[in-house]
Every structure is written in C-alpha cells, then in structure tokens.
Amino acid sequence: MQMKTVSVAAVSASVGLRIHKGKTKVLKYNTNNSNPITLDGETLEGVESFMYLGNIIDEQGGSDADVKARIGKARTAFL
Predict the structure, then answer these.
(1) What SS3 class is residue 57?
(2) Average pLDDT along the chain
(3) How far apart are CA 25 and CA 46, in angstroms?
(4) Is pTM, for the whole model, over 0.70?
(5) Interatomic CA distance for residues 51 and 72, integer angstroms
(6) Which of 10, 11, 24, 68 would you call most buried, defined as having the most Cβ atoms within 10 angstroms of its Cβ?
(7) Are the beta carbons of 2 and 37 closer than 8 angstroms?
(8) Residue 27 in contact with residue 59, Cβ under 8 Å?
(9) Which helix (H) or strand (E) holds 46?
(10) Ramachandran region of residue 5, left (φ > 0), alpha (ψ -120 to 50) or beta?
C-alpha cells in the first residue's frame, strides 16, 4: 500500500495536483498489516471507518454501521 500511495502522489504531482496530507486518511481493508503509510516523510492518519458519498465504509467491509445509520435517519424523519 505504501508503494501505491507514493505512485499516486507522483502521478498526481506530474499533472499539477497535490495530496493534502492533513486531510488524507488511510483505511486498511481486511489486512493484519499495521505498518504506517507515509507520504513525503509524514505519517498519514489511519481510521477504522469513514463516510464516502453518504455511505459508511469500515475496515471489515461490512455494511452494518451504514444500515444502522440509514435506519436511524429514516426513523428520525418519520417521528
């Protein structure tokens, strides 16, 4: 994953884009690898889950948290 991160950063830089290290999060999916991911000497923050396009994505690949969140939003809307 480290090599892919460096590769994406290099290709992005070649077309004038920069990766904002403060906003970038790392979610390791289905892995026991605990090595930190770094970019330009800075360690990127690792997270257990995050929201992407309205969906909760977690490190186990399950959708339980997403379904529970949607049910909660629907319940709130109808009450």
Answers:
(1) strand
(2) 88
(3) 6
(4) no
(5) 16
(6) 24
(7) yes
(8) yes
(9) strand 45-46
(10) alpha
